[in-house]
Amino acid sequence: MQIFVDADACPVKDEVVRVAERHNLAVLLVSNAWMRGPDHPLVQRFTVNNHPDAADDWIAERVTDLDVVITSDIPLAARCVAKGAKVMRPNGKPLDENSISMAVAMRDLHTHLRETGEITSGPAPFRKEDRSRFLDALEAAIQLIIRRKS
After folding, report:
1. From CA 26, how far away is CA 3, in angstroms rounded?
2. Strand bridging mode 94-95 / 86-88
């Protein structure tokens, strides 16, 4: 079991390491550009080429049904869900077989609305409650995989 982090814009890297440390799990931070991240023996950093989908491709090729993926990228989430991985957004909201179709549809709708000028603002700011929900959701996902392995 490993935790893959789509790390370019992930606000919860430190939290991932805290939970991973409790379970002695490897954390793979994957990004398109070198970034500073938590210095910890469980953390591995992978910098892929600057192609827009390179980090997504790298994660999707390696993830298994025993892994957790942290991403805000809906197409990457859909690929990982299809492989059986536990996927969640940095705000702790899970993306699974039941929610991924709606997430893809909403992403497409928001893209269209931004292109037509109907939406001009970005996502809501990241809050303390999001961080707390994320910690709980990550712990729950890991516990679920551990139980499934047993």
Report:
1. 6
2. antiparallel
